[in-house]
UniProtKB/TrEMBL annotation:
<comment type="subunit">
    <text>Homotetramer. Residues from neighboring subunits contribute catalytic and substrate-binding residues to each active site.</text>
</comment>
<keyword id="KW-0658">Purine biosynthesis</keyword>
<dbReference type="GO" id="GO:0070626">
    <property type="term" value="F:(S)-2-(5-amino-1-(5-phospho-D-ribosyl)imidazole-4-carboxamido) succinate lyase (fumarate-forming) activity"/>
</dbReference>
<dbReference type="InterPro" id="IPR019468">
    <property type="entry name" value="AdenyloSucc_lyase_C"/>
</dbReference>
<comment type="function">
    <text>Catalyzes two reactions in de novo purine nucleotide biosynthesis. Catalyzes the breakdown of 5-aminoimidazole- (N-succinylocarboxamide) ribotide (SAICAR or 2-[5-amino-1-(5-phospho-beta-D-ribosyl)imidazole-4-carboxamido]succinate) to 5-aminoimidazole-4-carboxamide ribotide (AICAR or 5-amino-1-(5-phospho-beta-D-ribosyl)imidazole-4-carboxamide) and fumarate, and of adenylosuccinate (ADS or N(6)-(1,2-dicarboxyethyl)-AMP) to adenosine monophosphate (AMP) and fumarate.</text>
</comment>
<dbReference type="InterPro" id="IPR020557">
    <property type="entry name" value="Fumarate_lyase_CS"/>
</dbReference>
<keyword id="KW-0456">Lyase</keyword>
<dbReference type="GO" id="GO:0044208">
    <property type="term" value="P:'de novo' AMP biosynthetic process"/>
</dbReference>
<dbReference type="GO" id="GO:0004018">
    <property type="term" value="F:N6-(1,2-dicarboxyethyl)AMP AMP-lyase (fumarate-forming) activity"/>
</dbReference>
<dbReference type="InterPro" id="IPR024083">
    <property type="entry name" value="Fumarase/histidase_N"/>
</dbReference>
<dbReference type="GO" id="GO:0006189">
    <property type="term" value="P:'de novo' IMP biosynthetic process"/>
</dbReference>
<dbReference type="InterPro" id="IPR004769">
    <property type="entry name" value="Pur_lyase"/>
</dbReference>
<dbReference type="InterPro" id="IPR008948">
    <property type="entry name" value="L-Aspartase-like"/>
</dbReference>
<protein>
    <recommendedName>
        <fullName>Adenylosuccinate lyase</fullName>
        <ecNumber>4.3.2.2</ecNumber>
    </recommendedName>
</protein>
<dbReference type="InterPro" id="IPR000362">
    <property type="entry name" value="Fumarate_lyase_fam"/>
</dbReference>
<feature type="domain" description="Adenylosuccinate lyase C-terminal">
    <location>
        <begin position="359"/>
        <end position="439"/>
    </location>
</feature>
<dbReference type="Pfam" id="PF10397">
    <property type="entry name" value="ADSL_C"/>
</dbReference>
């Protein structure tokens, strides 16, 4: 019986598989096989035993591991015993030799994280491409900029997408930087001294990680220190917060009274059970809602680093929830964002309507700057424009007409000057050039 929405509603099959019981067991056994090979390489155990252990893990079944765990109440030892059952010629006595549980469990986690990061890396790069495409396609689409929820001077949709693309690119850079710290394993024994491995402990750990093709910790106690994992969870939280921000903006711009953009809406899609006309931004809302869950994982994972002495078990149960949930939901959110942004529908007539909604008042800065450039002091120019703007606001007249009737303004600006200054298309500064610069820098 499915209970958690991840089981039936959210997440991709590829990310779910990474955190499945079957894949977890496969990674643990892969670590066991790598340990046996490394120990055989340095002569700690017979090579024949390592060969048998490696060949035996393929026949170990998850159900058998669970049966043993039900009897002994120890997950890692259940795997060791299940592997040992399959080994012949006394090779069973060399399974897990010198290791502690978390040598395998944490190393297996490193292998799972390697797969999870590869999936996230691929998707977030696709997201970057989609954002850059929208930035390039809409670099000349002038729209109303807004601050405090109020219309300000003009901007362009291209610049908005370029800003978001630049932020996503920083997340990609952060992910690259944290990979070497995150994707690691250990073979350090009961409390980190490698005593059970003898003098060759450092070499054994090095060889195991080379076989597994992941990094190796420099030092550890019984577990890999959780600052590494906390950094990754914070990366996921930071990433989905960017997408939360984008989705909030899309939701705002899709409001009926703004209606500049809209999520794609399928032919047979239903918006409301009682209001048939509704076209709700449900995917953007889902992004915002699930981002809250991912952010909520930060505190538990930070606390997983504050364990007693060389370790306790409080992190284990917590991480069984944090790692799969955070990864599955982050992957799901990125996938949603790709679809929303790629298929976003624009309404140019509404964009223009909102740009002109204030009857030229949003062009006050342009007039103020030009007056200052022509000899009026900046503060004096501000007051001239402010008083004219208030008159326009209260009278309902177009800002242009108020300015044309202002004798003080007429001393510095002609009618043609004023007409040009209140044209929003002529006041976007370097917005287009900035977009082109970002696209050139980040386009693959």
């Amino acid at each position: 019986m499915a209970i958690h929405p991840i089981e039936y509603r959210y997440g991709t099959d590829e990310m779910k598989f990474v955190w499945s019981e079957a894949n977890r067991l496969e990674k643990i056994m892969k670590a066991e096989a790598a340990l046996a090979r490394a120990e055989a390489d340095i002569g700690l155990i017979p090579k024949e035993a390592a060969d048998i252990i490696e060949s035996s893990i393929g026949s170990v079944e998850l159900e058998r591991v669970k049966e043993i765990e039900d009897e002994i109440h120890h997950d890692m030892m259940a795997v060791v015993l299940a592997i040992s059952e399959k080994c012949e010629e006394n090779a069973d006595k060399w399974v897990h030799f010198g290791a502690t549980s978390n040598d395998m469990l944490d190393t297996a986690t490193g292998l799972q994280l390697k797969e999870a990061v590869a999936i996230l890396d691929d998707k977030i790069r696709k997201l970057l491409d989609v954002l850059l495409t929208q930035a390039e396609n809409n670099k000349n689409l002038v729209c109303a900029g807004r601050t405090h929820g109020q219309i300000g001077v003009p901007t362009t949709y291209g610049l908005r997408f370029a800003i978001w693309a630049s932020e996503v690119a920083r997340h990609i850079e952060r992910l690259e930087q944290l990979k070497p710290r995150l994707i690691v394993g250990q073979m350090t024994g009961a409390v980190g001294t490698q005593a059970a491995f003898g003098k060759d402990g450092i070499e054994i750990q090095k060889k195991v990680m080379e076989y597994l093709e992941i990094g190796s910790v420099d030092v550890s106690n019984q577990i890999i220190q959780r600052d590494r994992h906390a950094e990754f969870v914070m990366w996921m939280a930071n990433t989905v917060t960017t997408l939360d921000k984008i989705a909030v903006e899309i939701r705002s711009l899709q409001r009926s009274e703004i209606a500049e953009v809209e999520e794609s809406f399928r032919k047979k899609q239903v918006g409301s059970s009682t209001m048939p006309h509704k076209r709700n931004p449900i995917k953007s809302e889902q992004i915002c809602g699930l981002a809250r869950i991912v952010r909520a994982m930060i505190e538990p994972e930070l606390q997983n680093n504050t364990l007693w002495d060389e370790r306790d078990l409080t992190n284990s149960s917590c991480e069984r929830v944090v790692f799969p949930e955070a990864c599955v939901l982050t992957d799901h959110i990125i996938k949603l964002a790709i679809g929303v942004i790629e298929n976003l529908r624009f309404y140019p007539e509404n964009i223009r309507r909102n740009l002109d909604l204030l009857r030229g008042l949003n062009m006050g800065e342009a007039v103020m700057i030009e007056l200052a450039m022509r000899g009026v002091g900046r503060q004096e120019a501000h007051e001239i424009v402010r008083s004219s703007a208030m008159e326009s606001h209260e009278s309902g007249k177009h800002f242009k007409d108020v300015l044309l009737a202002n004798t003080e303004v007429a001393n510095y600006l002609s009618e043609e000057d004023i007409i040009n200054l209140v044209d929003p298309d002529k006041y976007i500064g370097t917005a287009v050039e900035q977009v082109e610069m970002v696209v050139a820098k980040l386009k693959r």
